[in-house]
TrEMBL record:
Gene: LOC110527533
Gene Ontology BP terms: positive regulation of canonical NF-kappaB signal transduction; positive regulation of cell population proliferation
Domain EF-hand residues, every copy: 49-84
PROSITE patterns: EF_HAND_2, S100_CABP
Protein name: S100 calcium binding protein, beta (neural)
Keywords attached to this entry: Calcium, Metal-binding, Repeat
Alphabetical list of SUPFAM superfamilies matching this protein: EF-hand
Length: 95
């Protein structure tokens, strides 16, 4: 696989590793999302400790309102984080 192909496969693999912890095996509930952020993205997002941050993040990502994130809703989050990261890196390259 190419670098990009294996990156996409990794995103899918990580998503499923966390969805399988509790409840619906194909969706991330809030506690699973929190674990995923804290364990898989510590350098990018920092530790999310307060419940209000998780509540508002979950609310903004959960577009169909079932209180869990399916893969498409999760990808919105990955896109957001990736774009922020990219903008941050570009900004720093300009300096
Ligand atoms: Ca949902």
């Amino acid at each position: 696989m190419t670098d990009l192909e294996s990156s996409l496969a990794t995103i899918m693999e990580v998503f499923h590793r966390y969805t399988e912890k509790e409840g619906d095996k194909h969706k991330l509930k809030k506690s699973e999302l929190k674990d995923l952020i804290n364990e898989e993205l510590p350098a990018l997002t920092g530790q999310v400790k307060d419940q209000a941050t998780m509540d508002s993040l979950m609310e903004s990502l959960d577009t169909d309102g079932d209180s869990e994130l399916d893969f498409q809703e999760f990808m919105t989050f990955i896109t957001m984080v990736t774009v922020c990261c990219h903008d941050f890196c570009e900004h720093h390259e300009d300096e």
